[in-house]
Q: What sequence folds into this?
């Protein structure tokens, strides 16, 4: 199975599934009365408020709904200049009360960069750190990779260890559970990034009952609505969402378009906030992990985690606006 990075470097993902399941699962929280100027006209304002938190069924703990992905943005090697904005990204993230950071040993230098920045800022105890068993086969390979991840991340424990892209799933998940019993891992999960894998993921969810799953979901990739999200709710599995911005393609699709007038009803003043609120309007979603290397965008993303989410009518309107 190709990795996410291999896939994205070789082909563009075609947006499919615009006529999927109804959006009745979108929440209808009370609206806000915030004004919404055009994104191009507004000055940066600091994050304020308290991030919404959602429960991880396996433990009962609650985590903030806005997380941080490291694919791409933390793959900068020894580039000192590129690390400076990442320091501010992490600072704004933690200062807002956010916690969940997702990485992988196969994201080139991401684990090394993240581990060094977190250690320098002494942030480890304030983070919920997730990484993966990625691209390995057999228990020995998985264990060796996990030990390297601990070294690269400069930690002695992982909050969430995931089997990446359903590769060697049963062996690697068994290893993750063994590490959980040893106290080196707190939670275990399964990941993928393509809708074509959702059928297999659903089968594995039923058979293996992980604590977490990580899947793709966005305004234009809504296959998770069919079975994955309802099944996660039924089985008590937490859900992490990747590719909420479709690797940036959603912004190209709304370039030059004004925000919908109703954006003020959910306190949103950017397209990014609307895209993230769309994802979080699914009650089965625990956390979404947008990636950024820009402090301004980090603040913008965090703002999606406060206030009202989208109701069913607003979800439909956003789908139409993007399309």
A:
């Amino acid at each position: 199975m190709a990795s996410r990075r291999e896939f994205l470097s070789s082909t563009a993902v075609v947006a499919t599934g615009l006529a999927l399941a109804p959006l009745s699962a979108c929440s209808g929280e009370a609206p806000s009365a915030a004004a919404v100027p055009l994104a191009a006209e507004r000055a940066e304002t600091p994050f304020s408020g308290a991030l919404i938190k959602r429960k991880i069924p396996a433990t009962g703990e609650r985590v903030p709904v806005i997380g941080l992905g490291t694919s791409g943005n933390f793959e900068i090697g020894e580039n000192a200049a590129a690390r400076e904005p990442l320091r501010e990204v992490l600072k704004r993230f933690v200062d807002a009360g956010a916690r969940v950071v997702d990485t992988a040993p196969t994201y080139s230098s991401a684990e090394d960069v993240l581990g060094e920045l977190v250690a320098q800022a002494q942030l480890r105890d304030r983070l919920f750190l997730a990484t993966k068993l990625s691209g390995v086969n057999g228990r020995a390979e998985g264990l060796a990779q996990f030990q390297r991840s601990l070294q690269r991340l400069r930690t002695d424990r992982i909050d969430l260890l995931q089997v990446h892209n359903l590769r060697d799933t049963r062996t690697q998940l068994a290893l993750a559970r063994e590490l959980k019993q040893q106290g080196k891992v707190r939670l275990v999960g399964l990941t993928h990034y393509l809708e074509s894998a959702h059928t297999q993921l659903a089968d594995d969810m039923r058979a293996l009952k992980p604590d977490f799953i990580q899947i793709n979901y966005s305004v234009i990739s809504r296959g998770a609505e069919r079975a994955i999200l309802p099944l996660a709710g039924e089985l008590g599995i937490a859900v992490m969402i990747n590719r909420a911005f479709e690797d940036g393609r959603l912004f190209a699709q709304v370039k030059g378009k004004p925000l919908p007038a109703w954006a003020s009803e959910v306190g949103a003043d950017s397209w990014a906030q609307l895209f993230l609120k769309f994802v979080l309007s699914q009650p089965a979603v625990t956390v979404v992990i947008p990636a950024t290397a820009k402090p301004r965008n980090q603040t913008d993303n965090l703002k999606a985690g406060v206030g009202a989410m989208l109701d069913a009518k607003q979800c439909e309107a956003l789908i139409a606006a993007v399309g």
Remarks:
- The two ends are 30 Å apart (CA to CA).
- The beta strands are 53-55, 62-64, 68-69, 100-102, 128-133, 158-163, 185-191, 212-216, 238-242, 287-288.
